[in-house]
Amino acid sequence: MKRKLTLILSVVLAVAILVSIPLAGCKAAATETTAAAAATTAAVAAKKVILSNAYYTAPYCAVYNPAAIAKAKELGIELQVLDGEGNQQKQLEQAKLAVTEDNGFIYFPADVDGSVPVIEALKGFPYIVVNNYTLDALKKNNVPYYVGPDVIQHGYNMAELLFKLFPDKKANLVAVEGTAGHSQTILFNQAFDEKFAGTGFVWLDKQNADFDSDKALAKTTDMLTKYGDKINCIICHDGGSAAGAMAALKAAGKKAGEIPIICAGSNKSIYQGLMDGYIYGTSSQDPGAEGALGVETMDKILKGEKVDPLIYLPMSIVTKDNADKFSWF
Q1: Are the CB atoms for 266 and 329 separated by under 8 Å?
Q2: Coil vs helix vs strand at 48
Q3: Residues 6+ apart with CB under 8 A from 260
Q4: For residues 279 and 82, what is the distance between their CA atoms, to the nearest angstrom?
Q5: Owning domain of residue 159
């Protein structure tokens, strides 16, 4: 009886040992899986990025910002879009906040000269400059990455439209520009100076309207009053200025095409202007594609992937004849 009891106890002990081995293994595997999941969650949570947009309320950015947010959500990035208020001091504060609390910074600057302190504050931190910056400034300020249009190409495109509109290359022009010191203003004029050299194109006047349609309306009205029928064409640096210029022409009793507008932009108001005949042509780019591309690029940088230092958006010459092939916002 004693031998039988000893045998039973031995069997029970052996079974207990065999059962405990896989259970311990499962427990270890479960611990490893939990740790891996926690690490993955932490990695995702760590991807926090600030987008500082100097032109947060501009019509272009009404498409740009949501596209950036949508792409960030898709990629698992926590994106905070902040209004830079067209103020580099405000954007400097936002850059410092990103360096302290976030993992990356997308910088949509107000102008080139005022951007230097912001760039200095971002040294050694993952960031990209988007939308507008001169190539010379990118090199001079050692900006590692730029995503956006090759801005000067818009100027070249508008010049080509002028050559088509005035085959003899003679016309009196006025311009409703963006903001003084903005890279777009600088580069558009650089393109015009290059293309118009030796031609009969003459600038009667150039006025800054800060990409604002109400200011553009006032500035265009003043120039129409001052120069009247001497004006052969109005050059507008964006959709807002084009909308203001069209309103001024209508208020002055000008018929569609009487003083044609050539501009840059993809606003729905530009499309309507093309259809109505007030706008002869525009140089177009897609704000939604640009917003998404900036976030995609930042995602690659944070992942340690190789990224080209210059990533340009495509730009096209658009007239009434091909306008329906493009997207408008």
Answers
A1: yes
A2: strand
A3: 165, 233, 234, 278, 279, 280
A4: 33
A5: 152-285+319-325
Confidence of residue 37 (pLDDT cuts 50, 70, 90): very low
The answer to whether position 5 is within a domain reads no
Instruction: For residue 206, give the CATH number of its domain.
Output: 3.40.50.2300
CA distance 320 to 11: 91
Contact 202, 172 (CB under 8 A): yes
Q: Which residue has better confidence, 35 or 170? A: 170
Gap between the Cα atoms of 153 and 311, Å rounded: 14
pLDDT at 58: 85
Give me the number of domains the chain comprises.
2
Residues 298 and 257 in one domain: no
Are residue 73 and residue 140 in the same domain, yes or no? yes
pLDDT value, residue 172: 98
Count CB-CB contacts under 10 A for residue 104.
23
Element (H, E) at 317: strand 316-319
For the chain, report the end-to-end CA distance as a whole number of angstroms.
93
Q: Are residues 156 and 139 in the same domain?
A: no
Q: How many CB atoms lie within 10 A of CB 142?
A: 9
pLDDT in tens, 241-296: 999 999 999 999 999 999 999 999 999 999 999 999 999 999 999 999 999 999 99
CB count in 10 Å sphere of residue 17: 9
Identify whether residues 302 and 201 lie together within a single domain.
no
* pLDDT score at 46: 59
Instruction: Give a yes or no: residue 118 inside a domain.
Output: yes
| SS3 at position 300 | helix
Is residue 25 one of the residues assigned to a domain? no
Average pLDDT of the chain to the nearest whole number? 89
Tens digit of each residue's pLDDT (9 = 90 or more) over 55-104: 999 888 999 999 999 999 999 999 999 999 999 999 999 999 999 999 99
In this predicted structure, what is the pLDDT of residue 152? 96
Comparing C-alpha atoms, which of 40, 315, 287 is closest to residue 188? 315
* Residues 115 and 176 occupy one common structural domain: no
